[in-house]
């Protein structure tokens, strides 16, 4: 059932995002805890994730308890790696007196026949210690019989062994063989004969208890045993967690625990099964066993949860994973997402209050608890106190301590956030930290977001821009804008240019350009060492600046920005046809394929081109200004003509035209609703409708007036489409949609009422447009 839910969720994600991908969960999670900087690698399979746990090989590799036990048996005169070679790689035939392996050489030199015999017997059992029998389908019964023979021999050798360590080792082999034979009765019998759950002195005892737990029929006692195994062996932690039955009431298991340590072990596993707030459980473990490293790890995990719950929505403006699968689309509203972040900040304060109440001299790794306190103070926006805690940690932690890097990142976040709106900057004390962590994309983005929230959009943009040169090619920062709402579902950013394109005002963008133009003269080496934007990027920003002014219909300002780049730039970037370097010509997605003044998409050509010029952003802007000046000149005899050409250009600069690249850098067949300020104009061509109306006002023939009304009506239908996309929520409204487009379109009504002779020609198609335009005079 769980797999079905996940599949359904992924399917819904594909439906909602037109391209089939929508980031969620681990894609968007913000975190600053680097597990390599902390001492809980033995719990690595249980690091916090917004999705689930998974087995982590680091937890197994870091243990080697069995090798350590053998080394102790050899009086510490053999290296761990030499023992590992024999245990992991040697076969039965490799165990010989002439072996060069120091472990085997030591045993043979001591004439330790019992140890050598045990190793050979263990190697004989290896093939049968697996569910995967013979890939060629060997008879199952044969394997079972052989296992049973080995089981009986192991039990016999255990009973006859003179040394207690080999008595247990043979008995353990018997337990494992019984497990793979699914013989629970034999497990019970062998365990009771050779082991005791009250005595887990070494790794063999712990591994034996693991099989005992599997065979145990009492659910509460089974959980108790698995909790003991989990605590004692990192190699068995993941499988113990898998077998642990979290639905068994915790009180039933605690009643069987014989001491505070066992109670803490039990509570730890129940805590790991809790994906929600776990403070109550942490408090219980602290009361039972405050020095338990499992308690510190649960706190580490709880801090990971809070990073996700607080920082993910605050910095990325994405909801956390549990909200993502909710049925309420309002969960995607960024204001509600920020409200959720504030709610979880209150929980962070509860955890902080608990830490302030504990005796740090009793906990494992007090410095980690102090670090947690510093980050929780950041979460609760008590920046000054967090910096005080960090100052104390900096005195306590040696410079080579890996935790210092995490301390420094939290310090930088505090320094950035602890500023007033309008006066925020990149603090000098944070600059070295930023340089050191400049490839940590989420950290750098978080700093930029803090500055953006505080009104410094210049340095914020610089930090966002630096993400494109990070050496980390696998992790991406997905983020939204405060302008997002539930109506812009699926709108997110992963590239700073797209973000500036959608969010920054022309004034903010101009300020950023001024900033980067001045960096080369800046005496502060930080900016040179951190990230310098190259000339190609700067050119693209000027292009964007002009495009933003086009969106605002500030044509002279747009032309001024485009003139910064010059004709050569536009000849290379926006020419009608481009050369690939091999004398082959091709059209790119941003190329103007037709002159926007004379041609309309999906409409037969009906206006002769009187002027021929290379079409690009700068030439279109110049001509639009020129034609507007002529159209607005009361002495111009062809005002209707120039107004019509102007209207065509504005029409083509909408999503329905051939010059959409004057306003956008991409369009989608799935819809072009966005948070850009000209969203309505881009989707409705209302300026085109206005100027077709001006052409109508200056028209001198009824036939041309009819054509102007027909074009106004076409634009009005786009307006109906736009309104329908944003307000139509029922099939009953959609059913009469086509009728409404014509019956309520006032321009078509005017056409029918006032130009009845031309109505059928105009409405039936576009074939008569050429004749009607020609009849302008």
TrEMBL record:
Keywords: Signal
Protein origin, superkingdom: Bacteria
Record keyword Signal present: yes
Signal peptide (UniProt feature, chain positions): 1-18
Protein name as it appears in the record: Tetratricopeptide repeat protein
Protein source organism: Chryseobacterium formosus
């Amino acid at each position: 059932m769980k797999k079905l839910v996940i599949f359904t969720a992924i399917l819904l994600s594909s439906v909602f995002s037109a391209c089939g991908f929508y980031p969620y969960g681990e894609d968007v999670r913000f975190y600053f805890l680097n597990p390599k900087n902390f001492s809980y690698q033995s719990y690595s399979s249980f690091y916090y994730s917004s999705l689930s746990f998974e087995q982590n090989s680091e937890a197994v590799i870091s243990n080697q308890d069995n090798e350590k036990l053998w080394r102790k048996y050899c009086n510490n005169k053999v290296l761990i790696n030499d023992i590992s070679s024999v245990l992991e790689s040697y076969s039965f035939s490799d165990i010989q007196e002439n072996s060069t392996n120091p472990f085997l050489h030591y045993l043979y030199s001591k004439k330790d026949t019992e140890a050598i015999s045990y190793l050979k017997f263990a190697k004989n059992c290896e093939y049968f210690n697996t569910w995967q029998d013979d890939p060629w389908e060997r008879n199952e019964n044969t394997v079972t019989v052989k296992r049973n023979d080995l089981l009986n021999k192991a039990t016999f050798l255990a009973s006859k062994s003179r040394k207690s360590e080999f008595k247990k080792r043979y008995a353990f082999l018997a337990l494992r063989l019984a497990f793979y034979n699914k013989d629970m009765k034999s497990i019970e019998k062998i365990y009771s004969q050779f082991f005791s759950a009250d005595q887990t002195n070494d790794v063999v005892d712990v591994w034996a208890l693991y099989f005992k737990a599997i065979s145990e029929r009492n659910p509460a006692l089974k959980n108790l045993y698995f909790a003991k195994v989990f605590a004692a062996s990192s190699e068995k932690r993941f499988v113990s967690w898998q077998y642990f039955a979290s639905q068994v009431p915790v009180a039933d298991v605690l009643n069987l625990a014989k001491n505070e340590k066992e109670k803490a072990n039990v509570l730890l596993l129940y805590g790991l099964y809790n994906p929600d707030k776990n403070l109550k459980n942490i408090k219980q473990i602290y009361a039972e066993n405050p020095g338990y490293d499992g308690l510190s790890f649960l706190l580490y995990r709880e801090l990971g949860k809070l990073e996700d719950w607080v920082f993910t929505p605050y910095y990325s403006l994405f909801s956390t994973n549990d909200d993502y699968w909710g049925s309420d689309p309002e969960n995607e509203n960024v204001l509600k997402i920020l409200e959720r972040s504030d709610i979880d900040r209150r929980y962070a304060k509860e955890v902080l209050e608990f830490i302030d109440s504990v005796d740090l001299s009793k906990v494992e790794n007090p410095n980690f608890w102090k670090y947690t306190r510093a980050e929780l103070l950041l979460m609760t926006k008590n920046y000054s106190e967090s910096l005080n805690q960090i100052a104390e940690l900096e005195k306590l932690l040696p410079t080579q301590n890996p935790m210092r890097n995490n301390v420094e990142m939290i310090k930088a976040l505090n320094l950035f956030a602890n500023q007033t709106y309008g006066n925020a900057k990149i603090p000098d004390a944070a600059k070295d930290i930023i340089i050191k962590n400049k490839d940590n994309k989420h950290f750098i983005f978080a700093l930029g977001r803090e500055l953006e929230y505080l009104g410094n959009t210049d340095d914020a943009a610089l930090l966002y821009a630096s993400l494109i040169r990070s050496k980390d090619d696998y992790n991406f920062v997905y983020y939204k804008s405060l302008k997002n709402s539930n109506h812009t579902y699926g709108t997110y950013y992963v590239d700073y240019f797209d973000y500036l394109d959608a969010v920054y005002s022309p004034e903010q963008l101009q300020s950023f350009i001024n900033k980067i133009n001045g960096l080369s003269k800046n005496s502060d080496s930080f900016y040179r060492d951190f990230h310098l934007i190259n000339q190609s990027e700067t050119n693209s920003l000027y292009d964007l600046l002009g495009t933003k002014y086009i969106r605002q219909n500030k044509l002279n300002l747009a032309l001024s920005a485009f003139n910064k780049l010059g004709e050569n730039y536009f000849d290379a970037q926006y020419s009608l046809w481009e050369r690939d370097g091999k004398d082959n010509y091709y059209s790119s997605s941003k190329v103007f394929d037709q002159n926007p003044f004379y041609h309309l998409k999906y409409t037969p050509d009906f206006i002769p081109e009187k002027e021929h010029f290379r079409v690009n952003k700068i030439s279109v802007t110049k001509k639009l200004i020129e034609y507007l000046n002529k159209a607005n000149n009361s002495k111009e005899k062809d005002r209707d003509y120039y107004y019509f050409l102007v209207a065509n250009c504005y029409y083509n600069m909408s999503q329905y035209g051939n010059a959409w690249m004057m306003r956008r850098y991409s369009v989608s067949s799935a819809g072009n609703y966005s948070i850009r300020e000209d969203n309505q104009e881009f989707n409705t061509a209302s300026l085109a409708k206005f100027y077709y109306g001006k052409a109508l006002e200056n028209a001198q023939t009824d036939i041309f007036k009819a054509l102007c009304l027909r074009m106004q009506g076409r634009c009005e239908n786009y307006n109906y489409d736009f309104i329908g996309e944003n307000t139509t929520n029922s099939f009953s409204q959609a059913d009469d949609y086509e009728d409404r487009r014509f019956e309520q379109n006032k321009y078509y009504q005017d056409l029918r009422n006032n130009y009845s002779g031309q109505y059928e020609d105009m409405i039936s198609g576009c074939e008569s447009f050429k004749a009607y335009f020609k009849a302008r005079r």
